[in-house]
Structure formats: C-alpha cells, structure tokens
Amino acid sequence: MEILWFLLAVGLIAAVVAPWLLRRRSGGIRLTEPGAPDAADPLAYGFVRQELLDVRMPGPDQDLVDVLDVVQRTQDWRAASQLLAGTPKEGEVRWQRVQAFAGAASLELAQRPGEGGAWLRAWRAEAPKDAGGAAVHAEFLVQQAWRTAAVGTDEFRIILEEARTVCGEAALLAPGDPVPYIVELTVARGLGYTHEQFDQVWAKVIDRSPQHMGAHIAALHYWCEKWHGSRADADRFAQSAAARAPQGSLLAALPLFAVWEHVDDLTMVRDFYGTQVVSRAMEGALYAVHSARPDDPMLAHVRHLLIHFLVGAQRWSEAMHQIVHVDGHVGALPWTVSEDPAAQYALYRALAVAGYEANGGSPATLPH
C-alpha cells in the first residue's frame, strides 16, 4: 500500500512540474493539440500552407516561374534560352536562374529516369553555341554529381570532370559572364583543387563581379573545415569580404554563413546563440538586410538563414519580420540541406509564430 501511495504522489508531482519544465526549456512555448483554441496558427498571418511552398527558389521571380512552367509543359528549351539571353551578366539574377533551370532538369531526370530533362539535352544538341545552355548544362552536371554519386567515387569525379569541361565551353561563349567560373567553384570543391588552383578560378570570378554574393557563398564552402580549409580559413575569408563590402552590400552577412558551415562544431559551446562569434554574425546579417536594396536578389538568401538563427536565439519578433518577407519560397539554406525543405522551414515558422504569440504578438501586431 505504501508503494501505491508513493507512486501516486510521484505521478501528481510529475503532472504539476512537467508542464512548467516544458515551458521553461522552450522559452515559454508549449505544444498543444492541433485544432486547440489556443494553438498558434501560421495561416492566421497569411502565410502559405506547407504543401504550397515553392522549393525551387529562395524568393519570387515570376518571369522564371512562367518560363519554367512553359519549358516543362512543352519540353521546348527556347523560352529558357530567351530568358537567359535577356538577363544581364552582371549581378546575381543570372546565376540564380541558371541554378533553377539546372535544378529543374535534374529533378525531372530523378523522377523520370531516361526521359526527364530532355529539353536540356535538346537545347545543347540544337544550339551548342548558346552560352545560357552551356552554363545550365555545367550546373546540371554539378547537381547530378551530388545527387546521384557518392563524393570521392570514380563516378562522382567523372561527372565533375565533364562539368569542368562544359564550364570551359560556357566561359568561351560568354567571356564577361562570371557564372561559368562560379559553377567551377563547386567543381573545384568536389575535385579537390589545390588552394592555388582554386585561387586562379576565384580571381576570374572577382575580375568579372567582385561583389557577387552567390559566388562568395560558393567559395566559402571550399574554405570550410569539411572540405579544403578550416574554421579559421572560412572565418578569415568571410570577415575579409564583409570588411571590404561597400554600403548596402549583403557581403556583410557572409560571416553568418561561415557560422552555419561550422554549426555542428560550434553548438557544443554553452549558450551557443549568446557567444560573441554567433551574436556578432547575426547582427552583421541584420545590418546587411536593413541596408540592402529591397530588390537585391540575394536578400532572400540572407533572410532565410537569419530565420534559422533568430528562432534558435528565441528572438521571435525579429524572426517573424524576416518570415513576412520570404514566406512562400524555401529554396535556400538552411532548408535545402534537409530531405524535405518545406517541412523544415514550416517547423521553424511554427516555432516563430508560437514564440511571438507567447510574448504577446498577434497577426494584428505584425506589419506586412
């Protein structure tokens, strides 16, 4: 009988203490059953349903969406060629569109082996001197290497060797275009270029577009510890780029990408989000976002990464202000490293909403 009373007492204590601990550990957030009257609902803020999130791009590009729809519906490459021909070589948009076309072809091929992406094969066969087609083909091969082969295997290297050859062809077809060399930065990472070889490619990139944020992110991957550098190398590269960044440049946010590249190591530190390295990188990224042009095509990339860190730091209101600007598109780090980018983003969005409401926020208090 004494044991029965003891167990009953333990159960009562657990019933009282467990909810308090859950709220304490999660910064005031507690989980509720779906449909509960006090459940935080992202849809109440006008956010897009998880199943409708666009995983292809980090932010809106209606011209690209329209052309992708035409190309995939008709399997005719000409609309893609026309769009890239009309996209300026300078800036970030051309690089993003090349990635999107290559990704669409790669995904088609994965879904329909032997058939998918036929429009890209036709593009290269029918217009071998088309610079846009060559750039998309090179990026397609890079994505195929990572999608279909294990890093370091003969198959992986063979695909990347072919990608390097196509990068050279694309560069000859468009001498002032940095995109073929940006693609080669990823080839360099996969094939293990020496630092001197990598620097030669990097010099060609910055000669053509010294402030290219997408190129800097690609180069940062090479310099991180899991590839061909170290945490110190990556931090040095990111800090140097941020220091040289002119007013309004998103390169001030590059140190946050360096933190992300080494997050598995850094999270072993107590109070990860309160450390000087992380908090300073977050503030730099917030400064970059606030000072950048509203139409900067890389702005969405920085906002997405900020959401991850701001939610982790329980800075709910600031996270919500970033979500407002990017919701609907999830084709960016950190979500794209997940097998289900939309689900990963939706999880962080739900946490942000719950934290925002736990601290007095509501749809009426969030400016759009």
Overall description:
The chain is an all-alpha fold and 368 residues long. Helices cover 64% and strands 0% of the residues. It has helices at 2-25, 62-74, 78-85, 93-111, 118-126, 131-148, 154-173, 179-191, 195-208, 213-223, 231-244, 254-261, 263-266, 276-291, 299-312, 316-326, 341-358. Helix 11 runs antiparallel to helix 12 and helix 16 (316-326) crosses helix 17 (341-358).
Features:
single chain; 368 residues; mainly alpha; 17 helices; 64% helix; disordered N terminus
Order of helices and strands: HHHHHHHHHHHHHHHHH
Overall shape: it is globular
For the termini, the CA-CA separation is 61 Å
- Secondary-structure-based class equals mainly alpha
Q: Low-confidence parts lasting 5 or more residues at pLDDT below 50? A: 1-32, 34-38
Supply Rg: 23 Å
User: How many strand units?
Assistant: 0
Instruction: List the total number of helices.
Output: 17
Quote the beta fraction. Answer: under 5%
Helical proportion? 55-70%
Largest sheet: none
Oligomer: single chain
Mean pLDDT: 88
Annotate the secondary structure layout.
Layout: H1 2-25, H2 62-74, H3 78-85, H4 93-111, H5 118-126, H6 131-148, H7 154-173, H8 179-191, H9 195-208, H10 213-223, H11 231-244, H12 254-261, H13 263-266, H14 276-291, H15 299-312, H16 316-326, H17 341-358
Helix pairs in contact: 2-3, 4-6, 5-6, 6-7, 6-8, 7-8, 8-9, 8-10, 10-11, 10-12, 11-12, 12-14, 14-15, 15-16, 16-17
